[in-house]
From TrEMBL:
This is Transcriptional regulator. It comes from Pseudarthrobacter sulfonivorans. Residues 91-169 form the Transcription regulator PadR C-terminal domain. Coiled coil: none annotated. Residues 175-189 have a biased composition (Polar residues).
Amino acid sequence: MSIRHSLLALLQDQPRYGYQLRVEFENRTASTWPLNIGQVYTTLDRLERDGLVSNDGSDGEGHVVYSITAAGTAEVQNWFAAPVERNNPPRNELAIKLALAVTLPGVDVQAIIQAQRVASIRALQDYTKARRDTAANQRAADTAWLLVLDSLIFQTEAEVRWLDLCEARMLQQAQTAGQATPRKSSNGVTVEEAAPLIADSRR
């Protein structure tokens, strides 16, 4: 997540001080990614150093107000225009955990998958309920929150499908090794059934 560009985008709207930027960011994303106020001020210092914002002085109540410069406006416009790069995928703690689990002796990979599936499905239910309740209000101000919820729902659905594939692959591997295991995963999904979901998504 680019805090730097998010703050510039909010300053493009109007000059603000640090706490206002934090509140605006969390309001527009429904506090999905809470901002540390120290991180906000550190970022503002760097933006000022780089000539992307200017310090407009105090508002009379002890708040230092910042406004965006022409260079900052160009920076945020470039950010909006450019796609988010996928060259360096963000760290996925779950993928890292499973990758390590399958390479270490004595780790119950099936139990990890099951525990995560329960948590992921619970999160999916919570996101879906929040989306249904928010959509029922039919307020234009909720559009940003609905977009965030849609993103969270799609990501969680994909995670559950991936867990199905992981479990099926583990069972298939155990069968190949001659271990006594059931033919299908707890969700009844085989590698052959789960894998086409990935192939389809690449088209």
